[in-house]
Specification:
It is a single chain. With 685 residues, the chain is an all-beta fold. Among the domains are: 5-177, Jelly Rolls (Sandwich), CATH 2.60.120; 577-685, Serralysin-like metalloprotease, C-terminal (Alkaline Protease, subunit P, domain 1, 2 Solenoid). The strands form eight sheets. A 15-stranded parallel sheet has the order 30-34-36-38-40-42-44-46-48-50-52-54-56-58-62, with no helix packed on it. A twelve-stranded mixed sheet has the order 12-14-16-20-19-18-22-24-26-28-32-31, with no helix packed on it. Strand 60 and strand 61 (666-671) form a beta hairpin.
């Protein structure tokens, strides 16, 4: 199926996500959450705790800024997962809230745990801006006005200690329709959501939970009990799983016709989550360690999306027997990702990954990467995908590039290739018909299949097609067309200003509307510009230029030693220093010569001979008409811009006509004209 524009963003989530910037450790540089005063909502902030901004060992604290209207509250729920600690390092996440003056108004440490939860209410009577900071307890914020000012960590870490996910929820406590963050206890809880979009934190004990209305997120980790959940309705609900630093085995199996059974195993044993119904998205963050996710052949019909994140180690997803469509994020390690017959989406990250899409029409998406991407779907071994690692790509049909200058190459099946931002190169490949979409930037399309479709929208750059086909018509919003090869070719433009270049065969190029430029290859070619002011670059007298009455002011440019303008073409320009012979037609022509001795014959009409710049040498006009009374045939010499007048010229009678000497070394011989017939009316100054 076609790739939708929404596929170019990131993973599926019912909660907007933000990631911390590197230098976000002050109330001035903190990340803006989008949570404005008077608007209820929840965002998820993801990040890492460890070394400070840009690798400094002063400690790391990440800030996220939001607004609260008077009387409104914020709930903050932060879960963390430690990486493999060493050299005596400890990991104890800590959450603090500061006002815009830099004063701490709330905090939570959760003792030595990895979770923190707090709720704060704005009681000032006016709208206020606050910043929540998350850090390690040993690097608590001492000066929120300075991103480098924390108390030093015990071990001054030089790398990340762990990963965190933090939900920030703003709401009016008096409005029951506003979603909440609901947190369980260490016991067996019954946690039911509201009519709004809730985040439900399952804790120790075997809990039961029903999300109620809204798009809800159920959070579960390996420290929780074996729980039972129900999404509460046909909204977009998520089971959000956080692993730990141990290698884990996750399994998604069949429970009933609607739900599924999720099992997590590590060295400490197994835990399960029984999903009755209405969970459409499973979001698994494996944490540190080498994690595996196995998906059964027939999970419940409600589950639509599985997202699997790793944290820099080797992870695998095996869904080879599955029939549903999954979205898979492999993380930054060397991952093995295998899916079944669904239309799956793989999201490219760092590491040397192995990705096999199985039988469905699958997509590999690099839209989140801010660099050049190179993918060739013909290659079945590891390939350098351009900074994203050496990846093996099998049974994947569609590719979305990054924000750089991408090169995407299809194979023999139908491919959908999207370049996104940057000046991209898209090669559909031979065989089946492809869809190529460059996006913004000046993109180049290499077309080898007759059924290929090119998608460009207005104002997305100056785009070009190069093709080996025998005929091609430019799609809307594509500017340039080039024939590659020696076979005869028919190329058709559109209403834009097209540049159309022939190959080495006999080509027929048609421009239609716009101010088009035609560039000759070898062979005997036919050019037809249509309406607009067209330019023809002609290299052979075997070429034919076709223009009709009223189709603009058109021009032929040529290196040939002689050329005669076709009907309805207005201008002839000789290029180069050789001597040329040019002949016009019955309409008003403009002639521009090169540095040699050019011989011009106007052949009727009010013609103009261009001497606006010096360096033309001596030119000859065989039929110059100096009759002022004959406006329909009166010719002119154009000296505009040279600062001259008639008195500046030297008009000399010679055998057969007159020579007009022009300051700067140029001259024109007007054959058959007497000196008395030449006056200021014959010139444009």
């Amino acid at each position: 199926m076609p790739i939708q524009q929404t596929d170019l963003i990131t993973r599926t989530s019912v909660v907007p996500e933000i990631s911390q910037a590197e230098d976000d450790g002050s109330i001035f540089s903190a990340n803006w959450t989008g949570l404005s005063a008077g608007v209820a909502g929840t965002v998820q902030a993801n990040g890492f705790i460890g070394d400070g901004p840009f690798g400094l060992t002063t400690g790391d604290h990440d800030g996220f800024r939001f607004e609260l209207a008077a009387g409104w509250s914020v709930s903050i729920d932060m879960d963390a997962s430690a990486f493999g600690l060493h050299n005596g390092e400890s990991f104890d996440p800590f959450v603090q809230i500061f006002n815009s003056a830099g004063a701490q108004v709330a905090s939570n440490d959760d003792d030595d745990g990895l979770d923190s939860f707090l709720t704060f209410t704005n009681v000032t009577g006016t709208t206020q801006t606050y910043t929540v900071f998350v850090s390690d307890l040993d690097t608590t914020v001492t000066d929120p006005n300075n991103s480098g000012a924390s108390t030093g960590s015990v071990n001054s870490p030089t790398s990340d200690l762990g990963f965190y996910r933090m939900f920030i929820n703003t709401f009016d406590p008096g409005n029951a329709a506003h979603g909440r963050i609901i947190v369980g206890t260490a016991g067996a809880d019954a946690l039911d959501g509201t009519a709004g979009n809730d985040v439900i934190e399952l804790k120790g004990g075997n809990d039961t939970s029903n999300g109620g209305g809204g798009n809800d997120v159920f959070r579960w980790d390996m420290f929780d009990g074996s729980d039972t959940i129900d999404g509460g309705g046909p909204q977009s609900n998520v089971l959000d799983v956080l692993g730990n630093e141990l290698g884990q085995q996750f399994t998604v199996g069949t429970f009933n016709g609607f739900g599924f059974l999720f099992t997590a195993n590590d060295l400490n044993g197994a835990k399960t989550v029984t999903v009755n119904q209405w969970i459409q998205n499973l979001d698994v963050h494996g944490g540190d360690g080498n994690d595996n996710l196995v998906v059964g052949a027939s999970v419940g019909s409600d589950l639509q999306t599985i997202t699997f994140w790793g944290d820099g180690n080797d992870n695998s997803v095996s869904a080879s027997t599955a029939t549903k469509a999954f979205r898979i994020f492999g993380g930054d390690g060397n991952d093995i990702l295998v899916t079944g017959s669904g239309a799956d989406k793989f999201f490219g990250n760092d590491g040397d990954d192995f990705m096999n899409g199985g039988a469905g029409v699958d997509e590999l998406n690099f839209a989140s990467l801010g660099r050049d991407v190179n993918v060739d779907l013909n290659i079945t071994t590891a390939q350098n995908t351009g900074g994203a690692g050496f990846d093996t790509i099998l049974n994947i049909e569609n590719v979305v590039g990054g924000s750089g200058w991408d090169t995407l190459h299809g194979n023999t099946v139908s491919n959908y290739l999207i370049g996104g931002e940057g000046n991209d190169k898209l090669l559909g490949g031979e065989g089946a018909a492809n869809t190529l979409q460059g996006g913004t930037g000046n993109d180049t399309y290499f077309v080898e299949a007759a059924g290929d479709t090119i998608v460009e929208f207005a104002n997305e750059g100056t785009d070009s097609v190069q093709t080996t086909l025998t005929s091609f018509t430019l799609a809307a919003n594509v500017e340039n067309l080039t024939k590659v090869g020696s076979s005869g070719f028919t190329g058709v433009g559109n209403g834009l200003n097209n540049i159309m270049t022939g190959g080495s065969g006999n080509d027929y190029l048609v421009g239609f509307g716009g101010n088009d430029t035609f560039i000759d290859g070898a062979g005997a070619n036919t050019f037809q510009g249509g309406t607009g002011n067209d330019i023809y670059a002609v290299q052979s007298n075997a070429d034919t230029v076709t223009e009709f009455v009223g189709e603009g002011n058109d021009q032929v440019q040529t290196f040939l030693s002689s050329y005669t303008l076709a009907a309805n073409v207005e201008q002839l320009v000789f290029i180069g220093s050789i001597d040329h012979t040019g002949v016009g037609n019955s309409i008003a022509n403009t002639f521009t010569g090169g540095a040699g001795t050019d011989v011009w014959t106007g052949a009727g009409g009010t013609d103009t001979y261009n001497f606006r710049t010096s360096g033309n040498g001596l030119d000859i006009v065989t039929d110059f008409n100096a009759d002022n009374a004959n406006a329909a045939e009166h010719d002119h010499i154009d000296l505009t811009g040279r600062g001259l007048n008639f008195a500046s010229l030297a008009v000399t009678t010679v055998s057969g006509g007159v020579v007009v000497g022009i300051p700067g070394g140029d001259a024109v011989f007007l054959q058959g004209v007497s000196a008395g017939a030449v006056d200021a009316n014959d010139f444009f100054f």
